[in-house]
Amino acid sequence: MKKKRKGWIWLIVIVLLLGLGGGAFYYFYLRDGADANAGTAYVQSVADVTGMGNVGQNALYRGIVEAKDVIEINPQSDMRILKCYVETGSKVREGDPLFAYDVEDLKLQHAQLLIDITGLENGLRTNNEELEQLNKKLERAKESQVYELKLSIQTIELDIKKAEYDLKDKQQKAEDMQALIDASVVSSPVTGTVRSVRDESQSNPFGYYDGQSTAYISIVAGTDYCVKGTVSEQTVRTLYEGMPVLVRSRVDESTYPGTIYKINTDNTESSQPTYYDMGAGDSSSKYAFYVELASIEGLMIGQHVFIDLDATPDEDRAPMLPAAFVMQEDGRFYVWAVNEKNRIERREIQLGAYDEATESYPIVSGLSLKDRIAFPDDTVHAGMIAAETNYLDPDAMPSDFGIDNGMIDNGMIDMTDNGMIDGGMIDMPDDGMGFDSFDLPEEDGFSDDDSTGFGG
Questions:
Q1: Which CATH code for domain 40-59+315-444?
Q2: CA-CA-CA-CA torsion for 396, 442, 199, 269, nearest 10 degrees?
Q3: pTM for this one?
Q4: Residue 4 — pLDDT band, cuts 50, 70, 90?
Protein backbone atom coordinates (compact mmCIF):
# COMPACT_ATOMS: atom_id res chain seq x y z
CA MET A 1 0.00 0.00 0.00
CA LYS A 2 2.82 2.36 0.87
CA LYS A 3 4.62 1.61 -2.42
CA LYS A 4 1.50 2.54 -4.43
CA ARG A 5 1.14 5.79 -2.47
CA LYS A 6 4.77 6.71 -3.23
CA GLY A 7 4.22 5.97 -6.92
CA TRP A 8 1.25 8.33 -7.03
CA ILE A 9 3.26 11.05 -5.30
CA TRP A 10 6.05 10.79 -7.85
CA LEU A 11 3.56 10.88 -10.71
CA ILE A 12 1.95 14.05 -9.32
CA VAL A 13 5.42 15.69 -8.95
CA ILE A 14 6.31 14.88 -12.57
CA VAL A 15 2.99 16.28 -13.83
CA LEU A 16 3.53 19.48 -11.86
CA LEU A 17 7.05 19.90 -13.22
CA LEU A 18 5.83 19.44 -16.77
CA GLY A 19 3.10 21.95 -16.14
CA LEU A 20 5.56 24.49 -14.77
CA GLY A 21 7.89 23.95 -17.75
CA GLY A 22 5.05 24.50 -20.19
CA GLY A 23 3.95 27.60 -18.33
CA ALA A 24 7.47 28.99 -18.38
CA PHE A 25 7.74 28.31 -22.12
CA TYR A 26 4.49 30.14 -22.73
CA TYR A 27 5.49 33.06 -20.51
CA PHE A 28 8.87 33.63 -22.09
CA TYR A 29 8.18 32.74 -25.71
CA LEU A 30 4.45 32.67 -26.52
CA ARG A 31 3.00 35.26 -24.16
CA ASP A 32 3.50 38.13 -26.67
CA GLY A 33 1.05 36.55 -29.03
CA ALA A 34 3.65 34.67 -31.06
CA ASP A 35 4.07 30.95 -31.48
CA ALA A 36 7.00 28.74 -32.41
CA ASN A 37 6.37 29.45 -36.10
CA ALA A 38 6.28 33.23 -35.74
CA GLY A 39 9.06 33.70 -38.31
CA THR A 40 12.38 35.48 -38.29
CA ALA A 41 13.13 39.16 -38.68
CA TYR A 42 16.65 40.29 -39.55
CA VAL A 43 17.89 43.13 -37.41
CA GLN A 44 20.82 45.53 -37.09
CA SER A 45 22.16 47.47 -34.16
CA VAL A 46 21.21 51.12 -33.92
CA ALA A 47 24.94 51.88 -33.92
CA ASP A 48 25.24 50.28 -37.35
CA VAL A 49 22.10 51.87 -38.76
CA THR A 50 23.05 55.37 -37.58
CA GLY A 51 26.60 55.19 -38.91
CA MET A 52 28.16 54.79 -35.48
CA GLY A 53 28.95 51.13 -35.88
CA ASN A 54 31.04 48.97 -38.14
CA VAL A 55 28.93 49.56 -41.25
CA GLY A 56 28.63 53.31 -40.87
CA GLN A 57 30.24 55.91 -43.05
CA ASN A 58 32.18 57.45 -40.16
CA ALA A 59 35.63 55.96 -39.73
CA LEU A 60 38.32 55.86 -37.15
CA TYR A 61 41.93 55.63 -38.21
CA ARG A 62 44.79 54.35 -36.11
CA GLY A 63 47.33 56.99 -35.23
CA ILE A 64 50.50 57.37 -33.21
CA VAL A 65 51.77 60.46 -31.44
CA GLU A 66 55.20 61.52 -32.63
CA ALA A 67 57.30 64.63 -32.91
CA LYS A 68 56.77 66.82 -35.92
CA ASP A 69 60.48 66.53 -36.70
CA VAL A 70 61.86 63.02 -37.05
CA ILE A 71 65.52 62.99 -38.07
CA GLU A 72 66.69 59.97 -40.04
CA ILE A 73 70.40 59.16 -40.14
CA ASN A 74 71.94 56.64 -42.51
CA PRO A 75 75.57 55.51 -42.73
CA GLN A 76 77.49 55.86 -45.96
CA SER A 77 76.87 52.82 -48.12
CA ASP A 78 80.58 52.06 -48.57
CA MET A 79 81.38 52.28 -44.86
CA ARG A 80 81.14 49.53 -42.26
CA ILE A 81 79.80 50.36 -38.80
CA LEU A 82 82.20 49.46 -36.03
CA LYS A 83 80.04 50.31 -33.02
CA CYS A 84 76.64 51.81 -32.18
CA TYR A 85 76.42 53.85 -28.99
CA VAL A 86 72.62 54.19 -28.71
CA GLU A 87 69.53 52.00 -28.66
CA THR A 88 65.80 52.53 -29.07
CA GLY A 89 64.57 54.91 -26.37
CA SER A 90 67.98 56.48 -25.67
CA LYS A 91 67.90 60.17 -24.82
CA VAL A 92 70.49 62.12 -26.81
CA ARG A 93 71.70 65.69 -26.89
CA GLU A 94 73.04 67.51 -29.90
CA GLY A 95 76.63 66.37 -30.43
CA ASP A 96 76.31 63.05 -28.58
CA PRO A 97 77.95 60.11 -30.45
CA LEU A 98 75.55 57.77 -32.24
CA PHE A 99 77.81 55.28 -33.99
CA ALA A 100 81.38 54.87 -35.26
CA TYR A 101 82.72 53.66 -38.60
CA ASP A 102 85.45 51.06 -38.96
CA VAL A 103 88.22 53.22 -40.49
CA GLU A 104 91.27 50.93 -40.15
CA ASP A 105 91.28 50.17 -43.87
CA LEU A 106 90.78 53.86 -44.61
CA LYS A 107 93.83 54.74 -42.53
CA LEU A 108 95.96 52.27 -44.52
CA GLN A 109 94.62 53.62 -47.80
CA HIS A 110 95.22 57.17 -46.64
CA ALA A 111 98.82 56.34 -45.71
CA GLN A 112 99.38 54.83 -49.16
CA LEU A 113 97.93 57.95 -50.78
CA LEU A 114 100.34 60.13 -48.84
CA ILE A 115 103.23 58.01 -50.10
CA ASP A 116 101.96 58.29 -53.67
CA ILE A 117 101.59 62.05 -53.29
CA THR A 118 105.15 62.36 -52.02
CA GLY A 119 106.40 60.34 -55.00
CA LEU A 120 104.48 62.51 -57.47
CA GLU A 121 105.76 65.70 -55.85
CA ASN A 122 109.36 64.43 -56.09
CA GLY A 123 108.86 63.38 -59.69
CA LEU A 124 107.41 66.78 -60.57
CA ARG A 125 110.34 68.53 -58.94
CA THR A 126 112.79 66.43 -60.94
CA ASN A 127 110.90 66.99 -64.20
CA ASN A 128 110.71 70.74 -63.67
CA GLU A 129 114.44 70.88 -63.00
CA GLU A 130 115.13 68.82 -66.13
CA LEU A 131 112.81 71.04 -68.16
CA GLU A 132 114.66 74.10 -66.97
CA GLN A 133 118.01 72.59 -68.08
CA LEU A 134 116.65 71.63 -71.49
CA ASN A 135 115.34 75.15 -72.08
CA LYS A 136 118.79 76.56 -71.27
CA LYS A 137 120.41 74.09 -73.71
CA LEU A 138 117.90 75.06 -76.36
CA GLU A 139 119.01 78.68 -76.12
CA ARG A 140 122.65 77.70 -76.88
CA ALA A 141 121.95 74.74 -79.16
CA LYS A 142 123.13 74.41 -82.72
CA GLU A 143 120.56 74.19 -85.45
CA SER A 144 121.06 70.44 -85.77
CA GLN A 145 120.24 69.92 -82.06
CA VAL A 146 117.12 72.11 -81.91
CA TYR A 147 114.64 69.48 -83.13
CA GLU A 148 115.80 66.83 -80.68
CA LEU A 149 115.76 69.26 -77.74
CA LYS A 150 112.26 70.51 -78.55
CA LEU A 151 110.98 66.92 -78.73
CA SER A 152 112.49 66.18 -75.32
CA ILE A 153 110.99 69.36 -73.87
CA GLN A 154 107.50 68.45 -75.18
CA THR A 155 107.77 64.97 -73.71
CA ILE A 156 108.74 66.27 -70.27
CA GLU A 157 105.97 68.91 -70.38
CA LEU A 158 103.43 66.13 -71.04
CA ASP A 159 104.85 64.10 -68.15
CA ILE A 160 104.58 67.17 -65.89
CA LYS A 161 100.93 67.79 -66.85
CA LYS A 162 100.05 64.13 -66.26
CA ALA A 163 101.84 64.12 -62.90
CA GLU A 164 100.11 67.37 -61.86
CA TYR A 165 96.72 65.84 -62.70
CA ASP A 166 97.51 62.64 -60.79
CA LEU A 167 98.80 64.68 -57.85
CA LYS A 168 95.65 66.82 -57.69
CA ASP A 169 93.44 63.72 -57.87
CA LYS A 170 95.31 61.90 -55.09
CA GLN A 171 95.40 65.02 -52.93
CA GLN A 172 91.59 65.32 -53.23
CA LYS A 173 91.13 61.66 -52.37
CA ALA A 174 93.45 62.03 -49.40
CA GLU A 175 91.47 65.05 -48.16
CA ASP A 176 88.16 63.20 -48.52
CA MET A 177 89.56 60.13 -46.82
CA GLN A 178 90.99 62.22 -43.98
CA ALA A 179 87.57 63.85 -43.56
CA LEU A 180 85.99 60.41 -43.23
CA ILE A 181 88.59 59.36 -40.70
CA ASP A 182 88.07 62.56 -38.72
CA ALA A 183 84.28 62.00 -38.86
CA SER A 184 84.46 58.31 -38.01
CA VAL A 185 82.17 59.01 -35.03
CA VAL A 186 78.76 60.26 -36.19
CA SER A 187 77.05 62.58 -33.70
CA SER A 188 73.41 63.46 -33.15
CA PRO A 189 72.41 66.65 -34.98
CA VAL A 190 69.54 67.31 -32.55
CA THR A 191 68.40 66.81 -28.99
CA GLY A 192 65.70 64.17 -28.70
CA THR A 193 64.85 60.50 -28.29
CA VAL A 194 66.04 57.61 -30.44
CA ARG A 195 62.91 56.09 -31.95
CA SER A 196 64.52 53.19 -33.80
CA VAL A 197 67.86 51.58 -34.54
CA ARG A 198 68.00 49.18 -37.45
CA ASP A 199 69.57 45.81 -36.72
CA GLU A 200 72.12 45.37 -39.48
CA SER A 201 72.41 41.66 -38.71
CA GLN A 202 68.74 41.04 -39.50
CA SER A 203 68.24 42.32 -43.01
CA ASN A 204 64.86 41.91 -44.68
CA PRO A 205 65.26 39.15 -47.29
CA PHE A 206 62.13 40.24 -49.17
CA GLY A 207 63.09 43.90 -49.45
CA TYR A 208 59.70 45.33 -48.49
CA TYR A 209 58.96 47.99 -45.92
CA ASP A 210 57.87 46.37 -42.64
CA GLY A 211 56.24 49.38 -40.97
CA GLN A 212 59.39 50.62 -39.23
CA SER A 213 61.70 53.41 -40.33
CA THR A 214 64.11 52.27 -43.02
CA ALA A 215 66.80 54.62 -41.69
CA TYR A 216 69.65 53.19 -39.64
CA ILE A 217 68.81 55.54 -36.76
CA SER A 218 65.73 57.75 -36.43
CA ILE A 219 65.53 60.41 -33.73
CA VAL A 220 62.40 62.16 -32.50
CA ALA A 221 63.43 65.77 -32.10
CA GLY A 222 62.00 68.35 -29.74
CA THR A 223 58.61 68.32 -28.00
CA ASP A 224 56.31 69.64 -30.73
CA TYR A 225 53.91 66.72 -31.26
CA CYS A 226 51.72 65.62 -34.12
CA VAL A 227 49.70 62.48 -34.85
CA LYS A 228 50.59 60.27 -37.80
CA GLY A 229 47.86 58.14 -39.39
CA THR A 230 47.65 55.97 -42.49
CA VAL A 231 44.95 55.76 -45.13
CA SER A 232 44.45 53.42 -48.07
CA GLU A 233 44.65 54.50 -51.68
CA GLN A 234 40.89 53.95 -52.04
CA THR A 235 40.04 56.71 -49.56
CA VAL A 236 43.10 58.97 -49.48
CA ARG A 237 41.31 61.43 -51.78
CA THR A 238 38.57 61.93 -49.20
CA LEU A 239 41.10 63.64 -46.92
CA TYR A 240 42.41 67.14 -47.49
CA GLU A 241 44.92 69.45 -45.85
CA GLY A 242 43.13 71.73 -43.41
CA MET A 243 40.47 69.10 -42.67
CA PRO A 244 39.31 69.25 -39.02
CA VAL A 245 39.46 65.93 -37.13
CA LEU A 246 39.12 64.70 -33.57
CA VAL A 247 41.92 62.63 -32.01
CA ARG A 248 40.65 60.15 -29.41
CA SER A 249 42.59 58.49 -26.62
CA ARG A 250 42.46 54.70 -26.64
CA VAL A 251 42.64 54.40 -22.86
CA ASP A 252 40.11 56.99 -21.67
CA GLU A 253 37.54 59.48 -23.00
CA SER A 254 40.04 62.25 -23.72
CA THR A 255 39.70 63.97 -27.09
CA TYR A 256 41.99 66.42 -28.88
CA PRO A 257 40.75 68.61 -31.74
CA GLY A 258 43.21 68.85 -34.58
CA THR A 259 43.71 69.60 -38.27
CA ILE A 260 45.27 67.54 -41.04
CA TYR A 261 48.27 69.60 -42.14
CA LYS A 262 50.04 67.15 -44.45
CA ILE A 263 49.09 64.19 -46.64
CA ASN A 264 52.10 62.37 -48.09
CA THR A 265 50.97 60.88 -51.39
CA ASP A 266 54.48 60.93 -52.84
CA ASN A 267 55.63 57.90 -50.84
CA THR A 268 53.72 54.81 -49.82
CA GLU A 269 53.93 53.49 -46.29
CA SER A 270 54.20 49.92 -47.55
CA SER A 271 55.32 48.24 -50.75
CA GLN A 272 54.09 44.88 -49.44
CA PRO A 273 50.47 44.11 -50.43
CA THR A 274 48.24 45.20 -47.57
CA TYR A 275 44.81 44.41 -48.99
CA TYR A 276 43.94 41.75 -51.49
CA ASP A 277 41.01 41.80 -53.85
CA MET A 278 39.84 38.20 -54.17
CA GLY A 279 38.31 38.98 -57.54
CA ALA A 280 41.05 40.99 -59.23
CA GLY A 281 44.11 40.13 -57.18
CA ASP A 282 45.10 43.78 -56.81
CA SER A 283 47.01 45.16 -53.85
CA SER A 284 46.30 48.40 -52.03
CA SER A 285 48.94 50.82 -50.77
CA LYS A 286 48.82 53.06 -47.71
CA TYR A 287 49.75 56.71 -47.40
CA ALA A 288 50.64 58.70 -44.31
CA PHE A 289 48.80 61.80 -43.16
CA TYR A 290 49.64 64.08 -40.24
CA VAL A 291 47.42 65.89 -37.74
CA GLU A 292 48.42 69.07 -35.94
CA LEU A 293 46.90 69.30 -32.45
CA ALA A 294 45.57 72.37 -30.68
CA SER A 295 46.78 70.94 -27.36
CA ILE A 296 49.17 68.10 -26.47
CA GLU A 297 48.45 68.01 -22.75
CA GLY A 298 48.29 64.41 -21.54
CA LEU A 299 49.84 62.89 -24.66
CA MET A 300 53.15 61.05 -24.88
CA ILE A 301 55.50 60.24 -27.74
CA GLY A 302 54.61 56.81 -29.11
CA GLN A 303 51.08 56.82 -27.65
CA HIS A 304 48.50 55.07 -29.87
CA VAL A 305 45.29 56.98 -30.56
CA PHE A 306 42.30 57.03 -32.89
CA ILE A 307 41.75 59.72 -35.53
CA ASP A 308 38.04 60.48 -35.98
CA LEU A 309 37.19 62.20 -39.26
CA ASP A 310 34.07 63.63 -37.64
CA ALA A 311 35.39 66.58 -35.65
CA THR A 312 32.05 67.26 -33.95
CA PRO A 313 32.50 67.21 -30.14
CA ASP A 314 30.84 64.23 -28.47
CA GLU A 315 28.45 66.38 -26.48
CA ASP A 316 27.10 67.86 -29.73
CA ARG A 317 26.54 64.51 -31.43
CA ALA A 318 23.25 62.65 -31.69
CA PRO A 319 22.65 59.37 -33.53
CA MET A 320 20.76 60.08 -36.76
CA LEU A 321 18.15 57.41 -37.49
CA PRO A 322 17.31 57.03 -41.20
CA ALA A 323 13.69 57.89 -41.91
CA ALA A 324 13.25 54.56 -43.70
CA PHE A 325 13.37 52.76 -40.34
CA VAL A 326 10.70 55.01 -38.75
CA MET A 327 6.94 54.37 -38.66
CA GLN A 328 4.61 57.32 -37.95
CA GLU A 329 1.09 57.23 -36.61
CA ASP A 330 -0.93 60.11 -35.19
CA GLY A 331 2.19 62.24 -34.85
CA ARG A 332 4.06 59.56 -32.93
CA PHE A 333 7.16 57.64 -33.99
CA TYR A 334 7.63 53.87 -33.77
CA VAL A 335 10.25 51.28 -34.75
CA TRP A 336 10.37 47.52 -34.82
CA ALA A 337 12.79 46.88 -31.94
CA VAL A 338 14.08 43.73 -30.24
CA ASN A 339 12.97 43.19 -26.64
CA GLU A 340 14.77 41.34 -23.84
CA LYS A 341 13.30 38.02 -25.07
CA ASN A 342 14.87 38.48 -28.53
CA ARG A 343 11.41 39.12 -29.98
CA ILE A 344 10.26 41.94 -32.24
CA GLU A 345 8.08 44.57 -30.60
CA ARG A 346 6.55 47.83 -31.77
CA ARG A 347 8.29 50.51 -29.70
CA GLU A 348 7.48 54.18 -29.44
CA ILE A 349 10.49 56.50 -29.56
CA GLN A 350 11.13 60.23 -29.40
CA LEU A 351 12.87 61.90 -32.31
CA GLY A 352 14.11 65.39 -33.06
CA ALA A 353 13.54 67.55 -36.12
CA TYR A 354 13.79 65.87 -39.51
CA ASP A 355 17.03 66.55 -41.42
CA GLU A 356 16.25 66.76 -45.13
CA ALA A 357 19.93 66.66 -46.14
CA THR A 358 20.47 63.23 -44.57
CA GLU A 359 16.83 62.08 -44.59
CA SER A 360 17.12 61.12 -40.95
CA TYR A 361 15.97 62.06 -37.43
CA PRO A 362 18.12 62.66 -34.34
CA ILE A 363 17.26 60.10 -31.65
CA VAL A 364 16.11 61.81 -28.46
CA SER A 365 15.04 58.83 -26.36
CA GLY A 366 13.67 55.31 -26.59
CA LEU A 367 16.66 53.78 -28.37
CA SER A 368 20.29 53.25 -27.44
CA LEU A 369 23.12 52.40 -29.78
CA LYS A 370 23.06 48.83 -28.42
CA ASP A 371 19.41 48.30 -29.32
CA ARG A 372 18.59 46.31 -32.45
CA ILE A 373 15.91 47.23 -34.95
CA ALA A 374 14.39 45.73 -38.09
CA PHE A 375 13.54 47.43 -41.37
CA PRO A 376 9.77 47.99 -41.36
CA ASP A 377 8.70 46.09 -44.46
CA ASP A 378 5.36 44.31 -44.82
CA THR A 379 6.69 40.99 -43.54
CA VAL A 380 7.72 42.26 -40.08
CA HIS A 381 5.28 41.96 -37.18
CA ALA A 382 5.37 41.75 -33.40
CA GLY A 383 6.55 38.49 -31.86
CA MET A 384 8.99 37.50 -34.62
CA ILE A 385 12.34 36.05 -33.60
CA ALA A 386 15.24 38.46 -34.14
CA ALA A 387 18.28 37.32 -36.11
CA GLU A 388 21.45 39.30 -36.70
CA THR A 389 22.24 40.37 -40.26
CA ASN A 390 25.58 38.89 -41.37
CA TYR A 391 27.51 41.94 -42.53
CA LEU A 392 30.74 39.97 -42.74
CA ASP A 393 29.39 38.10 -45.77
CA PRO A 394 30.38 40.12 -48.87
CA ASP A 395 27.50 38.61 -50.83
CA ALA A 396 25.00 39.72 -48.18
CA MET A 397 26.41 43.23 -47.78
CA PRO A 398 25.01 46.06 -49.91
CA SER A 399 27.82 47.88 -51.69
CA ASP A 400 26.67 51.18 -50.23
CA PHE A 401 27.57 49.88 -46.79
CA GLY A 402 31.00 48.51 -47.77
CA ILE A 403 33.69 49.05 -45.20
CA ASP A 404 36.91 50.55 -46.44
CA ASN A 405 40.35 50.71 -44.91
CA GLY A 406 40.81 47.24 -43.61
CA MET A 407 37.36 45.72 -43.26
CA ILE A 408 35.41 44.32 -46.19
CA ASP A 409 34.76 46.54 -49.20
CA ASN A 410 33.47 44.89 -52.35
CA GLY A 411 35.47 41.76 -51.69
CA MET A 412 38.50 43.48 -50.15
CA ILE A 413 39.91 41.78 -47.06
CA ASP A 414 42.68 43.15 -44.90
CA MET A 415 45.63 40.77 -45.12
CA THR A 416 47.64 42.46 -42.37
CA ASP A 417 48.21 40.86 -38.97
CA ASN A 418 45.89 43.34 -37.31
CA GLY A 419 43.04 42.69 -39.72
CA MET A 420 42.79 38.91 -39.82
CA ILE A 421 39.58 37.22 -38.82
CA ASP A 422 40.04 35.55 -35.43
CA GLY A 423 37.30 33.57 -33.83
CA GLY A 424 34.63 35.35 -35.81
CA MET A 425 35.79 38.79 -34.74
CA ILE A 426 37.99 41.22 -36.60
CA ASP A 427 40.80 43.25 -35.07
CA MET A 428 41.01 46.91 -35.95
CA PRO A 429 43.58 47.49 -38.75
CA ASP A 430 46.05 50.35 -38.90
CA ASP A 431 43.87 52.05 -41.42
CA GLY A 432 40.26 53.21 -41.12
CA MET A 433 37.54 51.18 -39.43
CA GLY A 434 34.09 51.46 -38.00
CA PHE A 435 33.47 51.91 -34.29
CA ASP A 436 33.64 49.45 -31.45
CA SER A 437 31.71 46.55 -32.94
CA PHE A 438 34.93 44.60 -33.56
CA ASP A 439 37.48 43.29 -31.08
CA LEU A 440 40.65 45.33 -30.72
CA PRO A 441 44.07 43.85 -29.98
CA GLU A 442 44.57 43.60 -26.24
CA GLU A 443 48.22 44.52 -26.55
CA ASP A 444 47.21 47.96 -27.69
CA GLY A 445 45.74 48.67 -24.29
CA PHE A 446 42.20 48.94 -25.63
CA SER A 447 39.76 46.07 -25.72
CA ASP A 448 36.24 45.91 -27.04
CA ASP A 449 33.63 46.51 -24.35
CA ASP A 450 30.21 48.06 -24.10
CA SER A 451 31.37 51.32 -25.66
CA THR A 452 28.71 53.15 -27.62
CA GLY A 453 31.10 54.44 -30.22
CA PHE A 454 31.35 57.88 -28.64
CA GLY A 455 34.96 57.32 -27.68
CA GLY A 456 34.26 55.94 -24.21
A1: 2.40.420.20
A2: 40
A3: 0.40
A4: low
